[in-house]
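User: These chains co-purify. Model them together.
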Amino acid sequence: MNVQPSLRRIVAVVAAAALLAGCAATPTREAPSPDDPFEPMNRVSYSVHEVVDGHFVKPMVQAYVDYTPQFIQLGIRNFFGNIDDFFSFINAMLQGKPDKAGHSLGRVITNTGFGIFGIVDVASGAVPKSDEDFGQTFGVWGIPQGPYLFIPILGPTTFRDGSGWIIRGFTTPIGYIPDVPVRNTLWGIGAVDLRAQALQAESIVGQAALDPYTFIRRAYLQRRRYLVYDGQPPPAKEDDE
Amino acid sequence: MTHSGCRIGSMARTASRAGLGGWLFALMASFLLATPALAQETPDALVKRVSQEALAIIKSDPKVQAGDQARIRELIETKLTPYFDVDRMTALAAGRAYRSATPEQKKRLAEEFKTLLIRTYSTALNQYRDQSLEYKPLRADPNATDVTVRTEVIRPGQPPVQIDYSMGKTPNGWKAYDVIVGGISLVTNYRDEFTREVQAGGIDGLIKTLAAKNSGGAAR
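Assistant: Joint model of the two components:
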């Protein structure tokens, strides 16, 4: 019954935000960043995200963090972390890194078997955790990062990383669970867990940034470059000297 | 007799002179030794000492434990900022605009940037939980004047976060001019932000935005 008005409210808020953002974006004329050719569109997306996330997603996720017992949150984190490890294994293989692949596979086998489908991180401490993903694999293969994108709810990405997300979305084991309610519940919990991980970093951005959009963009691109180079990026060229 | 007496007298004079001289020498030596001793502290030893000291206070100070922001900021200001080369950080972040700024503008910009960094750092410290720090061995030439000190934050069940400090040798010892957290350089991040503000309102516009941001944060 009351689904209808709340949905209409969301649409109205989103539309208003998009309008406001459109107005706000027009007068500022800046040299476009080479990484972000779609900046005007992305800024609109960012404003929409701020509203939707700030009003609906973030309060829900904050409630999850504040009121769910710590051990349940940790179990959920570990469960999805186990799936991350599985993809780390696949991508370490694709990047020709047998050591990382071995560690990740070892973690998956140990934690799935002895840690009840990954809920307990039995391998923690013993086997190092890595975080390879498809976007990094493409980077290692020499595919350029492509334009930067900000997608409402999902956050910052690039063409390269976004392609990785899509591949992962189609291949994740969650998608192959035959029971639809279970599958959808896991998708939902996974999304909440993912968003919860960003909460801490976000409070720092709120304090540090003069313009959060610019700040998040540079931080994201720096972070991804660092990950592609496995923590040893070559020094960036100084465009200002 | 007179001869030997004379000799005793001269010996006594020498002795007293040696006493004063010895004292002066000791005083001077302590200054001379103390200064190079501070300057000679290797950058990795400095990072380790300063972070250990800060963490010890964070873990023991009841006000910090209770999340008292004023106390946390005071702690950062007295314990950490002396080891940061804020002028150099400001110059790097503001780039070309900094070089054409007046000394007065430079001073105000550095002051506001410092305040913002302290606030940001205190927000980050507030989230410090049961993590532990690890210090990587320093791989640098002993005569190097610019080094990167690598540390790692170990978090249970998650990949570690690498925190690197870019450090330069100054007349007052080693000082950090950039912090790179998980591959994100603070200075690089602020360079984009500063460029944007300078384009919009010049260096004064940037100072104003920073000041507004800093005073706005206080009201919260």
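DSSP finds eight helices and five strands in chain B.
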